[in-house]
Specification:
Elements lengths: L1 H15 L3 E2 H11 L8 H21 L9 E2 L8 H11 L6 H18 L3
Helix pairs in contact: 1-3, 3-4
């Protein structure tokens, strides 16, 4: 249920060419779903990453970009370290440093926006 709600929101955001923070995503889901997410911290990251990984894996297996690239940290404006580790696994790549991570994420974000443009 939560995975479906998260995916639905991410598709809407992709069409609007917008990102969302992890805490904003939790707040949105908590308003929509009887199943509640932690609002912040490591507990939130742990729960959200499970759902985002399922969604991203499905997309990549179907030749689409990681829609989870829309979910970013308030502090950095980029996805969490877990996103990049999962990207390395999904794409069999090595993101050696922060520059590689930023470039990968920016490219993935462009692909997501392109995928969902009307």
């Amino acid at each position: 249920m939560l995975t479906f709600e998260i995916e639905k929101l991410l598709i809407r955001l992709a069409k609007e060419k917008k990102t969302i923070t992890y805490s904003q995503l939790a707040s949105y889901i908590n308003k929509k779903s009887p199943e509640k997410l932690p609002e912040k911290g490591k507990a939130l990251g742990s729960v959200l990453s499970k759902h985002l990984h399922v969604i991203c894996e499905k997309y990549v297996k179907n030749g689409k970009p990681m829609i989870g690239s829309l979910v970013v940290s308030k502090k950095t404006g980029m996805p969490s370290e877990g996103f990049f580790k999962f990207a390395e696994k999904l794409y069999s790549i090595d993101l050696k440093n922060d520059d590689h991570k930023r470039i990968f994420w920016q490219n993935e974000l462009k692909k997501v926006f392109e995928e969902f443009k009307d």
